[in-house]
Amino acid sequence: MIFEFYHRFLRGLLTALMFLLLLPVSMQMLSRYTGLIPRYIWTEEMARFCFIWIILVGSMVAVRDKSHFIVDLIAEPKTQRGKVIWELIPDFMMTCVAVIFIIWGWPLVQFGLMQQSEMSGLPMIYIYGAWPLAGATWFFFLIEKFINNLKTLKSSK
After folding, report:
1. What is the residue range of 71's domain?
2. Distances in Å between the alpha carbon of 63 and those of 7, 41, 76, 83, 145?
3. What are the tens digits of pLDDT across the range 57-69?
4. What is the pLDDT of residues 7-16, one digit of tens each?
């Protein structure tokens, strides 16, 4: 299914971003402590941008993997049907957050079209676009999860 392909792509992107983050951080450390290479200002900005994308791509992967954290306030139900219904509550709340990221992320993207980063000159849409993309990805993964939960509910009757 397309969700599985997209999920694999996101996991690969997350791995690539983690390796990409090593480059500017290593350059900063080498320039700070050894003097072997000149100090670069853009490395700090690149590390920050990679970190933002790592967090948001990681959250997208976590929603699909169900590896995000959930706070249990009440004991988990014993039956399969109860567990499925119980999962709908945090999924609904995450869907609300996803919609907020989409709705309020869009003006941020439009603002990013007119902005450039100070040090690297990179258009800020590449950074600000991560928020509505994360919201849309969460939304689609949660819809997929909701459909799977409905199938489980129907089969457990």
Report:
1. 2-155
2. 10, 35, 20, 17, 9
3. 999 999 999 887 7
4. 999 999 999 9
Tally of structural domains, the chain: 1
DSSP string computed for 50-73: HHHHHHHHHHHHHHHHT-S-----
Give the pTM: 0.86
Helices (DSSP H) in the chain: which residue ranges?
Answer: 2-33, 42-65, 80-113, 125-128, 130-155
Residue 157: the pLDDT is: 65
CB 138 within 8 A of CB 59: yes
C-alpha to C-alpha distances, 137 to 9, 15, 25, 58, 99, nearest whole angstrom: 12, 18, 29, 11, 10
123 phi, psi to nearest 5 deg: -60, 135
Token reading at 123: 């258009």
Whole-number Å distance between alpha carbons of 130 and 125: 8
Q: Which residue has the tokens 């599985």?
A: 4
Q: Which of 90, 61, 89, 69 is nearest to 3 (CA)?
A: 61
What is the SS3 assignment for 150? helix
